[in-house]
Design goal:
It is a single chain. Helix content is 31%, strand content 21%. β14 and β15 form a beta hairpin. A 6-stranded parallel sheet has the order 9-10-8-11-12-13. Strands 17-18-22-19-20-21 form a 6-stranded mixed sheet, sandwiched between helices. Strands 1-7-6-3-2 form a 5-stranded mixed sheet. It has 476 residues and is an alpha/beta fold. The chain contains 16 helices and 22 strands.
């Protein structure tokens, strides 16, 4: 799609400092380190960074257009290559406005996907289905917030038939910004749980924020509702317009029957009463509901059942989302450490216990963040819940996991519980234990805990014993 400086100026209320209005606007970048020649560099400002400090770098790397917020920044760079220059009142707002403008130029059907858990996996499953019916854009990585979402929208082309856009909210007002930019026609809330409680207060607060996705769809919009979620189920009869339901609930229009755990996982997908056998390249039963969400959305869009089945069968789990590593010694390491909240912790652990019921089950857990004043309570409640699960061993890492540990011990659990203050001590202990046992091990924590750094040393051709160490710093 060829769009011009004139259109950029109109969309963002910008002022042309240098350049020709009819010049084309290149693809957008906000990171001078990865910028490619011919791209547009938008200098965002944040509490810990200022893109204006990297204008020279962007220019030297071949940026064709610089979008700035303050004219003063121009005096600080002397580029080898002088690009076009636009000043806007607010560079973040300009990015959002430009993303919306690009989206308005395409006929693509935009599907907004949000929820406390499973939105990334559901998005990937849905994209795998839709690509069989036409060119499909899908959110990459974690580009799902007020910065990443409009950045994704700028990649839309006239021949895109679908765009599966993930929408991540953490504070009040986030969803309104995302919907305003993406203008979705289809909305899916995977579930409502205890995420971002420090800012949204409660699951009801999470629902109120995410429900804006449903409420702000156009008159011909389609709302996809999970009947298995107690907070979402009532909406099936309350929402206006077309509603498609899914879940294990017998009243769901799209549901699952005859789920057979294993690798691969098999089930019967029921679409409006018609049964179809499905094979998923995963062993995690938690993926069944995500597959139903993707199938229900595709079904609502008129995608043929054959394409839905083939798309689901081709799906592979993304990194750090129930990603299974089978070790030469027979142990299984299940990496679900991309993020965590009280709801996703329980869902992931319950699915893990069901999936690997034929072997010893260990869990390696780190802190759940963004819980605010509820941090202690939520970790303690998780500990009491863990005490009732069929687990042989629990490994803990992080400040707030002390509350999980105390709850487990007060419950009189018979499972082994160890807590570590440093990653290296946890790694050493796991290496020694995995040398002699072959369990399935689930890793889960909030993103900031970086549990993947615990998994990486364990992924080797053989589990090598580490030097003896008694100073593990825990349990405490």
């Amino acid at each position: 799609m060829t769009l011009t400086l004139r259109q950029f100026l109109s969309a963002t209320s910008g002022s042309l400092i240098s350049g020709t209005p009819d010049q084309p606007v290149g693809p957008v970048s906000i990171d001078s380190r990865t910028l490619r020649s011919g791209q547009t560099f938008i200098a965002l400002q944040g509490p810990h960074f200022d893109g204006h400090d990297y204008l020279r770098t962007a220019a030297d790397r071949g940026a064709s257009l610089l979008v700035i917020q303050t004219l003063d920044a121009r005096a600080d760079f002397r580029p080898m290559h002088i690009p076009d220059l636009i000043q806007v009142p607010d560079t973040l707002k300009a990015l959002q406005q430009w993303g919306r403008f690009v989206r308005q130029q395409t006929p693509a059907t935009v599907i907004g996907v949000t929820g406390s858990n499973g939105k990334t996996t559901t998005k990937e499953m849905l994209a795998a289905i839709l690509r069989r019916s036409g060119k499909t854009l899908a959110t990459r990585g974690n580009l799902n917030n007020h910065i990443g979402l409009p950045l994704m929208l700028t990649e839309l082309e006239p021949d895109h038939r679908f765009a599966v856009i993930e929408m991540g909210t953490s504070r009040k007002g986030d969803m309104a910004v995302l919907v305003e930019a993406a203008l979705p026609r289809v909305g899916l809330i995977t579930n409502v749980g205890k995420d971002h409680l420090a800012f949204l207060g409660s699951p009801e607060g999470v629902l109120a924020e995410n429900r804006l996705l449903y409420d702000r769809l156009p008159a011909d919009g389609i709302r996809i509702v999970n009947l298995d979620d107690p907070l979402l189920k009532p909406l099936a009869t309350q929402l206006p317009g077309r509603v498609i339901t899914y879940g294990k609930d017998l009243n769901a229009q799209v549901r699952a029957e005859a789920v057979v755990p294993g690798t691969p996982l098999r089930l019967t997908l029921v679409l409006e009463g018609e049964p179809y056998p499905v094979t998923l390249q995963t062993s995690a039963t938690i993926q069944v509901l995500n597959a139903l969400a993707a199938a229900a959305t595709a079904h609502a869009l008129g995608i043929p059942p054959a394409d839905i089945l083939t798309g689901l069968a081709s799906f592979k789990a993304a990194a750090m989302r129930l990603q299974v590593h089978e070790q030469p010694n027979g142990s299984l390491l299940v990496n679900d450490a991309y993020n965590a909240n009280p709801s996703s912790m329980r869902a992931s652990i319950a699915s893990f216990c069901e999936t690997y019921s034929d072997r010893k089950r260990w869990v390696v857990l780190g802190d759940m963040r963004e819980l605010g004043v509820l941090a202690r309570q939520e970790h303690e409640e998780l500990g009491h819940w863990l005490a009732l699960q069929p687990l042989e061993r629990v490994w803990l890492y992080g400040r707030d996991t002390r509350f999980i540990e105390s709850a487990l011990r007060s419950a009189g659990t018979r499972m082994a519980v160890d807590r570590f203050r440093k990653k290296r001590y946890l790694i050493e202990a796991l290496q020694r234990s995995l040398e002699h046992e072959r369990p399935a091990v689930l890793f889960k924590a909030s993103r900031s805990m970086q549990l993947e750094k615990v998994i990486e040393p364990l992924l080797s051709d053989s589990v090598k014993p580490s030097p003896p160490s008694v100073s593990v710093g825990g349990p405490s």
